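Posting for a labmate who doesn't have an account.
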Amino acid sequence: MAGLLLALANTAAAQVSTAPPTLSVGPAIRRISTASALSTEQLGSINGVRQLRDGRVLLNDGQRRRLLVLDTSLKVVEIVLDSLSESSNFYGTRAGTLLPYRADTILFVDPAAYAMLVIDPQGKATRVRSVPRVQDVGQLTSGSNGVPGLDGKGRIVFRTWAEAAPPKVAPPPGMPWFPQEPDSAFIVGIDVDSRKLDTLGAIRIPKQENSVRINPQGGWNFQSVTNPVPSTDEWAVLPDGVIAFVRGRDYRVDYRHPDGTWTSSAKLPFPWQRLTEEDKQRIVDSVRAEQTRQAMSGYVSQLMRWVNQFNNEYPKDLVVPKDFRIQQGLQKSWKLPPGLSFPEKYVYGCAPGEEPTMLPAVGDSAAKAVVPPPLSAPSAPGPMTGTPSCIPGPISVPGGNSPPMPQLRTPGVMAPADLPDYQPPFSTNSVRADGDGNLWVRINTLKPIPGGAVYDIISREGELVDRLQLPQGYTLVGFGAGRIVYLSMRDAKGQHLARVRLR
């Protein structure tokens, strides 16, 4: 997929090709097929981009803890913040977040230091401010509750949780009270100078259920009940400070203007599909079966560590699932559950003092004495081929005080009667505002469509004007004025940023 954009990175503007109509109502799907520029810098991640006034791009690489300025060809020309703690422009110890601010300035929020770095329209760091309220840092930087923006009064707009009311009857002494998760959230605006918080609107969020039980050891076991068909509202802040609330129940947009007035769009076209009682039951059964399989697999893996690291015995009634797969890198001396054995060509963990080598694959010549990268890190490009002779593992000392035997937790799935009657048009965290005042809504397609995510483009007037599909493997990360879209993708050489100019 990288070749798709690399081969066409010198084109003057991005092209979109029309796919055969796949939805019964609304515009035909157009597929993004080319880009005007593609970055080549080695990036760990793209946690956000903001286009500067002169067309350059401020890129937040949270994994490598760098804040970079890229020119219009997406070549790195300046390092605003670096990961070196000895430098004066230290990024911080945790991934930060970019937020728009007044007069085209940008805020970089450091969640570890509870500070905000003010960056001017040329990409220069000018001063540091404290966050308005420490308790809001998680909501500003999580990335899972929408993209904070700036309203018409210069307030930072973000989502915060609704809090459950205290119980009418207090629980018995010594018994804690665990409220159920709320089914709504508030969109609020905070003034950075006065630190005054105002509620600007409310949205419905997916219903969540939790259960709490006392375990045999006297502790508490918390279990979340999965909602397989989450119905939600979403929100976004337009460049002119208008706040858009996209309603999932009837798929329309409510606009809150800077003067406090509200307007609403008509219902947007969407191929609604009714969920019958049989459909709901089938969905619940499918999710429960998959969760049961995953829970059983995790339970067996935990038992294997409990038995081998603390010299315990397997339960006599243990039945290992037929599709259970042993993870690579266990020691050859480990005792496996009854009926289970290491598969042929299994890659064991390295013995103490053993150095891994690369065993040649079919057609390879001599083995290469190269240590593979850590299993938790993304695979890096390089000359490594074949299979490692063993996998380095963390140093562990068997024995010691044995923890309690792992317990199999029964998965929880919401009852069919609690599911919505229609397939929701979009899911959580699926709405963004572009640089021209349009809303991008990542919709749920009723049937799989080859390619990437499909977005409904809703104009500032609340009309569905376009429907675009990203290439497979690409993710939407930001916008620029003049119909510019920024996408991220990963290939064997690492993470890349692509600029797309729509026609």
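Reply:
Got it, the structure tokens are right above this. Residues 1-13, 362-385 have pLDDT under 50 and may be disordered.
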